[in-house]
């Protein structure tokens, strides 16, 4: 399946932080699940139909930006060739020794 997707120009990705927003967590609970776990290269999973995500996102984004993170589209974050994904969902280049993608989220 992954190879077929690649042939079509699609990439399989894995998130490193699950907000669990689909469980109807409050905005504050979503914030507490996400912000403390963010590190350079993190991919955070949110769902577009989750009830409290729209309320949680402004504070999450503002705080991450204040910490020096830059929020980027996934297409700018993923490594497209010569990579591996560890058990925590973090993607690493196989060209370098476990160097993270960059300081973006």
What is Rg?
A: 15 Å
Which structural class should the secondary elements be placed in? alpha+beta
Note the overall shape: globular
Largest sheet properties? 2 strands, parallel
- Counting DSSP H or I runs of 4 or more residues, the number of helices is 4
The residue-averaged pLDDT reads 87
Distance between the termini: 27 Å
Give your account of this protein's structure.
The structure is a single chain. The protein has 105 residues and is an alpha+beta fold. The chain is 30% helix and 10% strand. The protein has 4 helices and 4 strands, in the order αβαβααββ. It has helices at 2-7, 27-34, 53-66, 74-77, and strands at residues 17-18, 44-45, 83-85, 91-93. Strands 1-2 form a two-stranded parallel ribbon. The longest helix has 14 residues, at 53-66. The protein is globular. The two termini are 27 Å apart. The model has no long low-confidence stretch (mean pLDDT 87).
């Amino acid at each position: 399946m992954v190879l077929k997707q690649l042939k079509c120009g699609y990439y399989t990705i894995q998130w490193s932080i699950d907000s669990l927003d689909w469980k109807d967590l409050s905005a504050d609970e979503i914030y507490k699940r996400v912000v403390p776990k963010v590190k350079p290269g993190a991919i955070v999973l949110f769902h577009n139909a989750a009830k409290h995500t729209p309320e949680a996102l402004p504070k999450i984004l503002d705080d991450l930006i204040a910490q020096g993170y830059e929020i980027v589209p996934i297409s700018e974050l993923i490594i497209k060739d010569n990579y591996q994904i560890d058990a925590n969902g973090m993607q690493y280049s196989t060209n370098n020794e476990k160097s993270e993608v960059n300081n973006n989220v």
